[in-house]
Structures are given as structure tokens and as C-alpha cells.
Design goal:
Elements: H1 8-25, H2 30-36, H3 38-43, H4 45-74, H5 76-96, H6 110-172
Helix pairs in contact: 1-4
């Protein structure tokens, strides 16, 4: 059903999930089925029993297939294994008495713990973005100067063209 390797946390999760799938697929009994389809059960009890079993098996296999797709799409096993590793590392740090600025403590707000880890990353990203912005602004200044130069050249060309047209009009008259 799933990858057999993985953390103990994943193994327990997978086992509990398999049990839940089996229980949910077989939650309704044959008696419940018989109440829903009394004529069918009266006419063919063996066929009704086989139909009930095949429906339960289908529900179970469909649940398994749907969960496998979700697990693949969201990398559930890998993420649970990462969680297991993080929890084990935290337990080891607690045993050793190590306390970091990003380690959760009872008196520490979750926002502060997250900030301790994310703020340095955000600061380095902001520094990188500021450098990129400065580079783009410098490029824009150069482009603006070229545009202003082109506008001046175009204005001068228009002035010269107007003068030539004026001379041409005077020559025609």
C-alpha cells in the first residue's frame, strides 16, 4: 500500500490509517445492507452477500487509492519523516540541555520562535532584493537619459524640418 521504509512515526500512522480504512469500509453490516435492499436479499441471499462484500471491498480499495494519491501529491511520508526527525532532534537537544533562540519553550510564543528562524532568511532576501532594485534603478537612469537624448534629437529634427518647410513655402510663393 505504501513505502515500507520510513520513520517509526510514519509506520504507526500508516498502520492506524489502514485500520481506519478497513473499519470505515466495513462499518455497515450485512443486516444494514439487507434493510436497504430487502427484496434483493430475500430473492438471492448468497448473491446479496457477495454484492455486499464486493461493495465493501470497492469502498476500501477506493479509499486506499484516494489516500495514495493525496500522499503522493503532498509528500506525506516524507513530511512525517521530517517531523519525526525534528522531534527526535528536539528531544536530544532537551536531554543535552541545549537551548537555541528558535527553540520552543513553554513561555515562548510560537510567533517568536518562527521569527527567530525566518527573520534572518527574510533579511538576507531583502538585502538581495535591494541590490537588484539598485541595479534596475541604475539601468533605468541610463535608459531615461537615452530617452531624453532621443527626445532632444527628435525635437531638433522637427525644428529643422519646420524651418525647411517654411523655406519651401516661401520659395513656392
Amino acid at each position: 500500500m505504501y513505502n515500507q521504509s520510513g520513520s517509526r512515526r510514519w509506520t504507526h500512522f500508516r498502520s492506524a490509517l489502514q485500520l481506519a480504512i478497513q473499519r470505515s469500509a466495513h462499518k455497515w453490516t450485512f443486516e444494514d445492507f439487507a434493510q436497504c435492499f430487502p427484496l434483493y436479499v430475500e430473492e438471492d441471499k448468497n448473491g446479496a452477500s457477495a454484492t455486499f462484500d464486493s461493495i465493501a471491498d470497492y469502498i476500501e480499495s477506493q479509499n486506499v487509492n484516494d489516500l495514495e494519491k493525496l500522499f503522493k501529491d503532498y509528500s506525506v511520508q516524507e513530511n512525517i519523516d521530517i517531523l519525526h526527525r525534528v522531534v527526535n532532534e528536539a528531544k536530544e537537544r532537551k536531554i543535552k540541555g541545549e537551548v537555541g533562540k528558535d527553540v520552543w519553550r513553554e513561555d515562548l510564543e510560537p510567533r517568536a520562535a518562527v521569527s527567530a528562524r525566518t527573520v534572518p532568511i527574510m533579511e538576507s532576501e531583502a538585502k538581495r532584493l535591494r541590490a537588484a532594485l539598485a541595479e534596475i534603478q541604475e539601468e533605468n537612469i541610463g535608459l531615461q537619459a537615452r530617452i531624453e537624448e532621443n527626445v532632444a534629437v527628435a525635437a531638433n529634427a522637427k525644428k529643422v524640418a519646420d524651418q525647411l518647410l517654411d523655406k519651401l513655402d516661401r520659395v513656392r510663393l
